[in-house]
Design a protein that fits this description.
By secondary structure, this protein is α/β, with parallel strands linked by helices. It contains 14 helices and 17 strands.
């Protein structure tokens, strides 16, 4: 309070205020910076006194006169200087000893700060030198980058393969909207309205209780007619619904009628000049009793066996010994096998590959999503943890030729459908790996029938064969009867 009264006395033109007098409003109390204060002390020590406030302001080259004045008043209160306030504001005397001592402390502080800066720079320089790669390391890294660039650069053969096997531009594939329903999409995109992606609509029936939320199983629920939870259906125009209503068999039949076989020129990367695409074929049979010599040899085999995984399943299963005695080795000399496994069958599947003469070379993972394209969290399999994925073991036998490497990755993210219904993406992956070759699927159903594939299973409908050699051997062996 004394310092403030002295400051008021100076700023008020020399008038002294007592404790009882009302003080004027407080103004700016800020002082000069550390460098500015040191500069002011140096001028006071070196210049001839008296020094007016205006002279100090011009010598200090300080723009803020208020800060300069406050600093001088502070020096006066600390008895560093003596002020004359009767004739404006003048410094008439200084305490050289105190000023020199204060300047010395400022110098030490500045030197210490400079030393710390130099030490920090030295440490940074040392770290930079330690982290800087040597000439040998730089050369090795450059060589590695060049090799990586060469490996990533697609050759003319790879470009031809990709161009030949890429998806049709008129594909029916559409992207799902992240807002799920069209109403939520409109609310989320206030500026633009509903987007052009695929949406769902809620199915609210008399027995539905919307307050319970969505059903965990959605379109795979076994009790949709009585389930109280909310279910969904595709919300799309009639043209899209009509196109989706066509079954796989009808589409295959249409393709077969328009062109019994399609010839795709591919002489640049295959030894044979054409890829022959054959319509789907199937045999309804008990695979355990079928004579595999009748169907011949295949380049690719895929199997989704009814493993005995010690759970209640809606279909019959096979014992481990029945799986071991299937005789898969008779239908392939050189080629690939894709074996779907789950639960305890993972280890058994690896043993079977070795027993049948295969080397396991890869493992495809199917990450399961639900109808709304979200990750499955309540899978129906799994003793300890709900399973949200399945594995497909990939084995190689002999020395297969005319196959394409590196076109696909080992992860499939696809929607769960009926029980044991595997993702359709696996067929595209296999066809790109080995285009135009003969392929065999074991334990298939009607939705599994594909071009260039022979499907075997006891849930198919009759017999349909296209390959003349297979047809001849089959009817010679079984006639018109089914091989049960």
């Amino acid at each position: 309070k004394q310092w403030y009264q002295r400051r008021v006395a100076i700023t008020a033109g020399g008038k002294t205020y007592t404790e009882n007098d009302p003080l004027p409003e407080k103004s700016d109390h800020s002082v000069l910076s550390e460098d500015g204060t040191q500069n002011l002390l140096t001028i006071l020590e070196s210049e001839q006194l008296p020094l007016s406030l205006e002279t100090l302001h011009s010598k200090c080259q300080e723009e803020n006169l208020s800060q300069l004045k406050n600093t001088i008043v502070m020096f006066s209160y600390q008895d560093l200087i003596t002020l004359n306030v009767t004739d404006h504001l003048k410094v008439i005397a200084i305490d050289n000893k105190k000023v020199s001592s204060l300047l010395g402390r400022y110098d030490k502080k500045r030197k210490r700060r400079k030393l710390n800066t130099q030490v920090a720079l030295s440490v940074e320089s040392a770290e930079f030198l330690l982290n800087k790669p040597s000439a040998v390391q730089s050369q090795s890294k450059k060589l590695g980058e060049e090799i990586q660039a060469l490996l990533n650069h697609k050759s003319a053969r790879e470009k031809t393969i990709i161009e030949t096997l890429k998806s049709n531009k008129n594909s029916q594939v559409r992207e799902f909207c992240e807002w799920v329903t069209r109403q939520e999409c409109k609310r989320g995109n206030v500026k633009f309205g509903s987007c052009g992606k695929l949406h769902f609509k809620k199915l609210i029936h008399a027995h539905t209780d919307p307050s319970l939320g969505d059903c965990s199983f959605l379109n795979t629920c076994f009790h949709m007619d009585t389930c109280k939870y909310v279910h969904y259906a595709i919300d799309e125009d009639s043209h899209y619904q009509r196109s989706q209503a066509l079954s796989r068999r009808e589409l295959a039949s249409k393709r077969a009628k328009s062109s019994a076989t399609m010839l795709v020129s591919d002489s640049k990367f295959l030894s044979n000049t054409n890829i022959v695409i054959t319509p789907p074929q199937w045999i309804q049979c008990d695979i355990r009793k079928l004579d595999f010599d009748v169907i011949g040899k295949f380049t690719v085999i895929m199997a989704d066996p009814p493993w005995d995984i010690h759970m209640e399943l809606p279909y019959g299963t096979m014992t481990d010994d029945e799986m071991r005695n299937m005789g898969i080795e008779r239908v392939q000399d050189d080629g690939f096998i894709f074996l779907w496994v789950t639960g305890r069958a993972v280890e058994l599947g690896r043993q079977l590959l070795q027993l049948w003469g295969y080397d396991r070379v890869d493992d495809i993972i199917w990450v399961k999503t639900n109808q709304l394209q979200r990750l499955i969290r309540t899978g129906r399999t799994g003793h300890w943890i709900n399973h949200g994925k399945e594995h497909c073991l990939v084995g190689v036998k002999g020395s297969p030729s005319n196959f394409n490497r590196g076109l696909d990755c080992d992860v499939i993210v696809s929607e769960v459908r009926d029980t044991s219904h595997k993702p359709d993406e696996i067929y595209g992956m296999i066809e790109r790996l080995s285009p135009g070759t003969r392929k065999l699927e074991l334990f298939g159903r009607e939705h599994n029938t594909q071009n260039n594939w022979l499907t075997l299973g006891n849930q198919l409908d009759g017999v349909h064969l296209e390959w003349e050699d297979v047809k001849s051997r089959y009817f010679t062996k079984y006639g018109m009867a089914l091989p049960f």
